[in-house]
Amino acid sequence: MNDTTPATARIRDGVPLLEMRGITKRFAGVVADDGVDFDVRAGEIHTLFGENGAGKSTLMRVLYGFHHPDAGEIRINGSPVSIASPADAIRHGIGMIHQHFMLVNTLSVADNVALGLRSSRGPLTEPGRVSERIRELSATYHLQVDPQALIWQLSVGERQRVEIVKALYRNATLLILDEPTAVLTPQEVDDLFTVLRRMAEDGKGLVFISHKVREVLGLSDRITVLRAGHRIGTLPAAGATRDQLVQMMVGHALPARELAAETGFTAETPKRAPADRPEPAPPGPGTLADTGTPTAPGIGSVARGVGRAGTVAAAGAPRLVVRDLTVRGDRGADAVRGLSLAVHGGEIVGIAGVSGNGQRELAEAIAGLRRPSSGSILLEGTELAGGNPARARLAGLGYVPEERMRDGVVPDFSVAENLLLVDSHEPAFSRLGFLRSGEIRRHCEELVRAFDIRTPTLEAPARTLSGGNIQKLIMARELSREPRVLLVAQPTRGIDVAAAAYIHDRLREQRARGVGVLIISEDLDEVMALADRILVMYEGAIIGEAAPGASTRESIGLMMAGVRPEAPADAGSWATV
Amino acid sequence: MIAIERSLDTPRWQRIALPFASLVLAAVISGIVLLVSGHNPIATYEQIYAASFTSSGALTSTFVYATPLLFTGLAAAVAFRMRIWNIGGEGQLYMGAIGASGIGLLLGSWPTLLLIPAMMAGGVVAGALWALIPGLLRAFLQTNEILVSLMLNYVAGLVMYFLIYDSQSYWRDLTSPTALVFPTGKTLAASATWPGLTIGTFTLPLGFIAGAVLAVLLLVLVRGTRFGFEMRVMGDSTSAATYSGMRTRRIILAVMALSGALAGLAGASQIGDFGHVLDPRGLEQAQYGYTGIVVAALALYNPLAVVVVAILIGALNNAGFALQGPGFPPGLVGTMEGIILFSVLGGEILGRYRIRVGSRVRPPETQAELDAAR
């Protein structure tokens, strides 16, 4: 069992572990899944691939008993079953690892695993037995988990392992993993894949949901592509190509350039073909040489001349300078620790990193939402540190927040009101304290048209829009103010491919117009596709810098995991924390 | 199978029809209560209607009750609409009464035309300042405004009693023979009496007219002005308000002051329209501040609806007072108010859901599902 069997050999023939036949699920008359067939064999990793809203999650929520299908049949080991609730699903040996972990932070791992289970000692708990069983499972599947650790002490990767242990503890034979890699470092992803392969070898069936092509091709045995609620096809991963998959996913061929940029698929050669850069340009002064080592750009002293299409030569003083910034996080510890960076006009600087390394606090500090404990944030000479959002906007900052539905829009407000959100004081929109509804309407109609916001009317509440359209709405609002510096946190998280491509185009357009763009994203593919310079953030500071064309994804991945690049002795402030 | 699911959009007709349907339901439930207690519901309702509107002087006294409720209802509605829970309307009303009566006594020699606005200003300022105490504490120290404003009601009551019973204050009558027997406040000069609008036997108090005008102005403020826009943003999403650069503290303070000012006007109107004397016991027993919360809730925080609801609840209170006696169940009015509140708010919540007969359905729970549902 320990030797790595070829994928084809470990899959058990005979009756599939799971068969879903003709599953149809409608919400308020709209079809989320339309007659979808799906099956998983024992020992198989079967991926569900598709855009947001393609019906992947709905299908799996039907399987896990969150939804009752309008039509269709579910068979487990050949016999039809009715799954009315997650409890039924668990009884049938189905386990689900949710994107958002369902763990009680203040309890131990063992307590979380035992939660909701019957104890053999009646009303008394049996922590000893639970811990022992967890250790057994950990050993069998290489899942390092300490049963006594409290959840809040664990990293995201460890918490995910707890979720897996929870499912295994309940004797799951079929595991559903809903975008499990979204929150992990590349190294953690590798560890997870090892665990998943090991579980498949053990005869378990796995359903893997993802929209990252590389992972899907690397991990799966078979891939089922869904689009708009329909099954487009199921194919063995061995013969599949990324182009094929992406075309099946989006239904039309994206231009080659977009394809590479949006799917993040990179050639297998370590040196990435700069697919989104039509003219390979010699690096200007201050850009990185192709060595992948970080330089130490003295703030404001780097004359940059990135001579490539669509890029305004970013020379002269930087637009945004962050110096020695320290910001306290919600838990009281410093989340940003002496961070420095500079953004010039006409460039996109990308901050990569695993979430929780201070990115959120950095963004909030720049936007004036969080008061730094020390350091400075200069936007063309205006000090933003310790200010407020109004001052930051006045100084020329456009900010697209990470939490779209919480900060970016008021969900119950209309599209028009949300477009007005930050501009209500502009003389164009209010006179003597009264809102000028005619002007506002004209302005909003124009923005809806210009940014292709798909909404039935201006009066529709924002919450009825899709994630992509909400992000377009926020972008429209921020860009209409013609910012000098644009800060975008998680530009396309949870957004479908088409809208994401659109947003990326708009960000490049801003760069071409000479705006200094700072993007913060957990999606390394996105950062690599967009940024001229990549800064990797780790434990509150910039651990290293890389140019997307020059560095391999692996070296950035290492930095994201906290491995300091081999820096020359005089590497300077970037590499020192 | 029958399932209840959340409806994504409530049709407009439903939003209007629902409160009325709830009122009918409340009447039916109250009718059952009456039947059980051995009364004829139809006859009792006829009695109530007559005592509220048709019998001699009934309409005038209905508005005596409705006027303070209009102000305290508006005070609660404007704060609650933006999720600032000012429960202190009662205390702010007391302070408004103290302020307005103080001004009325001090400037008693002024002509009525000047004295009335001065008294109103006295009530507004006193109420607003009293409301700013919980407002400031909430804005700067994140204290719970529900607790602070509620406690301050008792403090305001004690201040009022102190002025009349336990001190030789400016408000207390120390000269007249009755005041020597029992402590009372000084009665204001005739010039401080607010004139009402008299149509035949019916008198519409000046306070009610002012309150109705204010209700319209509040609607314009909320719907049509930048301040109203910011208020609504803050009510719906504090984080979005902060993100968009709104000065949230300033908005909290402004709303608390506005709410307090409206409650203060209730106190001023009690002095100018009706009492002409600072009467701690009367004000305390009336509990207009607390009933105003009920009025605001029934009106679903809509200022214009507050006007209607204030008349309705005023009528009920008036009837309860006029009819009290052996033939009329004591506590019926309170029971009815409770039932009305219950069914209107219950109807409002249920209106957000719809009943679906057929296969089992759950509401979409994630954004992806909402997208899918669209």
CATH superfamily of the largest domain in chain A: P-loop containing nucleotide triphosphate hydrolases
Shape of chain A: globular
Low-confidence segments of chain B, ≥5 residues, pLDDT <50?
359-365
- Roughly what is the average pLDDT of chain B, rounded to an integer? 88
Outline the biggest β-sheet of chain A. Answer: 6 strands, mixed
Give the percentage of residues in beta strands of chain A.
Answer: 15-25%
Kindly state the mean pLDDT of chain A as a whole number? Answer: 80
Could you tell me the radius of gyration of chain A in angstroms? Answer: 25 Å
Mind telling me the C-alpha Rg of chain B?
Answer: 23 Å
The oligomeric state of the chains shown is: heterodimer
Domains counted in the coordinates of chain A: how many? Answer: 4
**Largest beta sheet of chain A: what is the strand line-up?**
6-7-8-3-9-10
CATH architecture of the largest domain in chain A: 3-Layer(aba) Sandwich
How do the SSEs of chain B run, as a string of H and E?
EHHHHHHHEEHHHHHHHHEH
Q: Give the beta-strand count of chain B.
A: 4
Number of strands of chain A: 22
Assign the structural class of chain A, choosing from mainly alpha, mainly beta, alpha/beta, alpha+beta, or little secondary structure. alpha/beta
Tally of individual helices of chain A: 19
List low-pLDDT spans of chain A.
1-5, 253-313, 568-577
Q: Whole-Å distance between the termini of chain B?
A: 24 Å
What does this 3D model show about the protein?
The complex is a heterodimer of chains A (577) and B (374). By secondary structure, chain A is α/β, with parallel strands linked by helices. Chain A folds into four domains: 7-93 and 174-253, P-loop containing nucleotide triphosphate hydrolases (Rossmann fold), CATH 3.40.50; 106-172, no CATH class; 287-396 and 483-575, Rossmann fold (3-Layer(aba) Sandwich), CATH 3.40.50; 411-481, no CATH class. The longest helix of chain A is centred in the middle third of the chain and has 16 residues, at 186-201. The radius of gyration of chain A is 25 Å and the shape is globular. The two termini of chain A are 45 Å apart. With 374 residues, chain B is mainly alpha-helical. Chain B has 16 helices and four strands. Chain B has helices at residues 12-36, 41-54, 58-81, 89-106, 112-141, 145-165, 177-181, 206-224, 226-236, 238-243, 248-275, 280-286, 288-298, 303-323, 332-350, 367-373; strands spanning 2-6, 197-199, 202-204, 353-357. In chain B, strands 1-4 form a two-stranded antiparallel ribbon. A two-stranded antiparallel ribbon of chain B has the order 2-3. Chain B is globular and about 75 Å long. Residues 359-365 of chain B have low confidence and may be disordered.
